[in-house]
Amino acid sequence: MGVTISKTSELSPISFVSTLFGFIGFALTIATFLRVTWENIQTFLGASTQISDLLGNLKQGLYEERAHLRKVRRWQRRRGSFQGSPRGGPDEKNRRRSEHWYGDGHSYHGYYPDMKDLHDDDQSTRVMREAVRNMIRDFRALEQPFLRDDVESRFRDPHVRNGEGYAPSDDEEYYKTEYRTTGYRERWLWLNRKGAVVDMMSQLSRLETRRIAKEVGEACLIVRGMERDFQVMDDRIWNLEQRMSRVVGLRRVEPPIQ
């Protein structure tokens, strides 16, 4: 009993679609593999310039952001000492002084931040400073393998409390970091750590955007408060002129003393 093989059999539509999707998925996988391989080759070959450029820019951004947040913190302390401690509740002394200056029954119409606003600003700045401090600590760990031996030993201090033995200063010499000559070891390390450096740069960019948005919002509130202050001042000057004109007018119509 023989077996008959049909030479005119065709694939079912489901089998054809499944085969087509299989080829498409395989092609996408090959394309992704080639793209990742090409990017890794470019990173490996261009490590000599990418190390100094990316690490240098990231370091400069981190330390400039830390310096700016320190200035903001000092300004907040001076403002808190002038208007009262953010943790001490409402400042009744300044409030009574404002009421005495602007008169009873008249509230201050300008931008006069209360203690809750000062406390929120203090907490927001503290959170950003903590984030920058943690990013700097992580950056030192990423940068360490690429530093020259003399530069690494220059900024190493075994008595630093952070446990990593680094005590970078804020001098200009620290920003002029000299990296090692790029060899195969440094290229391979950079291939594994470039992603972390790029992610840290994006985190720093988001933090800077948040800080700038906060400062711009505060500046807008201050400008609007100044506009209201000028309006109130103009109204008070107009009222004073009206009173003075009435007083002067009464004096003019008084009969002369005989």
UniProtKB/TrEMBL annotation:
Residues 76-99 are annotated as: Disordered. Keywords: Membrane, Transmembrane, Transmembrane helix. Residues 89-99 have a biased composition (Basic and acidic residues). The chain crosses the membrane at residues 14-34. It comes from the Eukaryota. This is Uncharacterized protein.
